[in-house]
């Protein structure tokens, strides 16, 4: 299960959690749970519970990579929810190389960040 997809009708948590199931009926999939606002709420929630930089960074990386991947779908995402404008990236060969470059760049940045944090 991936956190931004908890509002999807096929997700495990949606099937067994009444609160999440009711949210799904109010909000569209790829709206609130695929927004920067939701990302901020999750970060604050995880910081309160765990207060561990590695867990927080892992969740941030997971959610951001999920949002980037969903940007390449025909449906797009409402990244600036509650503004109801769907953003999407048309997927072609140029975007494929750009997409790979972005993930390689992010991987290098986060790897260096983790190594420097472990050395302290």
Describe the structure.
The chain is 62% helix and 0% strand. With 120 residues, the chain is an all-alpha fold. The protein has one domain. The protein starts with 11 loop residues before the first helix and ends with a helix.
Biggest sheet layout: none
H-E order: HHHHH
- Name the helicity range: 55-70%
From the alpha-carbon coordinates, what is the Rg to the nearest angstrom? 16 Å
Number of helices: 5
Principal-axes geometry comes out as flat
Question: How many independent structural domains?
Answer: 1
What is the subunit arrangement here?
Answer: single chain
Measured distance between first and last alpha carbons: 33 Å
Q: What portion of the residues fall into strands of 2 or more residues?
A: under 5%
Class by SSE composition: mainly alpha
Poorly predicted runs = none
- Overall pLDDT metric: 75
By DSSP, the count of extended strands is 0
Condensed summary:
This protein is mainly alpha-helical. Helix content is 62%, strand content 0%. It has one domain.
